[in-house]
């Protein structure tokens, strides 16, 4: 059973998010989709939306706190209001654009692990590391597990090569297989691929033996496209 996740990033409104989720939820029923489906909307779009048991709403980010004086952040008090128990941690945009250190990421991970959240933990390398070869790539990726309990039972991993996110450049199947295969030998957890995944390549990518699903950005923001992605992967 594939795991298919949509990361809205800084897109959609509360109204359009509710419409998207309702449409996808109805599609899951009508097309007998059994995949695990996760949608990560913006924090301002959290709402009380009833969904099928295999469609979960997650948080793109949260501070490791219940509540407090942390301007611009949300904590578990805000997540609990909407019964959100799934969180994305370590995404490359938070690492490379918002400058989250590995220590900060590990602290956040430990906090949400202690509360039993489902964590989708992201790792991936920039272009200059990829160009240095597989050994350097894996060395870089493994460094992103510093301070991370890889045996946590509610953990899903996502490998997202930074150079393939939002660029239209997708890693080749050989690239994906090499990195995924190495990670899977070392860490026995579901492993998603992310990085320019689209309607027309998601099936091929998710058919690779060491790929357990996909974490998708741009190509998942239109409900019809996301439904087609679910249809294309439902038997994997």
Query: What's the CATH H-level superfamily name?
Result: Aldolase class I
Helices and strands, in order, run as EHEEHEHHEHHEHEHEH
Question: Any idea what the CATH architecture is?
Answer: Alpha-Beta Barrel
End-to-end Cα distance, whole Å, is 6 Å
Could you explain how this protein is built, in words?
The mean pLDDT is 96. The longest helix has 17 residues, at 14-30. This protein has one domain: Alpha-Beta Barrel (TIM Barrel). α1 runs parallel beside α9 and α6 (134-143) packs across α7. It has helices at residues 14-30, 76-81, 92-96, 102-114, 127-130, 134-143, 173-186, 202-206, 223-233, and strands spanning 3-7, 36-40, 55-57, 86-89, 118-123, 155-159, 191-193, 213-216. 36% of the residues lie in helices and 15% in strands. It is globular and about 45 Å long. It has 236 residues and is an alpha/beta fold.
Key phrases:
236 residues, alpha/beta, TIM Barrel, eight-stranded parallel β-sheet, TIM_sf, Triosephosphate_isomerase
Quick gist of this model?
The protein has nine helices and eight strands. The protein is of the alpha/beta class.
What is the strand and helix layout of this fold?
Layout: E1 3-7, H1 14-30, E2 36-40, E3 55-57, H2 76-81, E4 86-89, H3 92-96, H4 102-114, E5 118-123, H5 127-130, H6 134-143, E6 155-159, H7 173-186, E7 191-193, H8 202-206, E8 213-216, H9 223-233
Parallel strand pairs: 1-2, 1-8, 2-3, 4-5, 5-6, 6-7, 7-8
Helix pairs in contact: 1-9, 6-7
